Amino acid sequence: MNLTSCVSLGLVLAGCVASSQAAYVTVRFDNPIFSGVPGTAYDNVTVTYPKQAGGGTESAGTAAGRFQGTVLAYGGVSPSIFVDSLNDLYTYCYDIYEHVGSGWTVNYTINLNGEQARTLDFLGAVNAVLNQGQPTFDTFAWLHPGSGAVAAAVQLGIWESRYDTGAWGLAGGSFKASGIDAGTQAVLNSFFAAIDTSAALDGKWVMTLESAGFQDMITGDPPGTVPEPATLALLGTAFAGLAATRRRRRASGG
Fold this sequence. Notes:
six-stranded antiparallel beta barrel, globular
């Protein structure tokens, strides 16, 4: 086997290892779920959004805010993929059709490319606004709201980015919201106003958590994370086996 074939087979094996162990995380949401934000951590609103099937729209009352949870288990990723700590996993809803609740435990598959481009446009604007006047730039400012109004505005904007395709705003289009507190609306307006003048957030900083039957989430993802040591060891064993085979064939004249 020549070196090119060895490398090609090694890449195939690496792909098999990656596919055989999908990255996952088990999250227990806090009780109350909107913890970690000072004061009133959410805004009760009414949202209208497209039905999943059959056309038309449906409406529901919901709380808009940032969720907090604890990572109970994970696999296929390094713990450094979680922005703050395993005890402080911050997320926003990325699936308005499903639900999670305070104290619930959910098993998620990690998708490093599950976000939409329109969401990255919005999150880039959020970061631009929240980092104004700050001594250092926080790429995850959107995950670190300083008030419930900011948290609610980020959540509403994420829903707008996901379920609408037209002009930014909650008064019309495929996604609408009403009953919004004045403070939340003011913050959200500043985010929408910054979209055309700010760069989109690079997708390498974002991942989605997906689970059939439970609400999908969107959260941060520091780039440069590596597979867990067990995965690396398995790859090392595979390459060692390839090298041994190559040496045996050389010795036998193959």
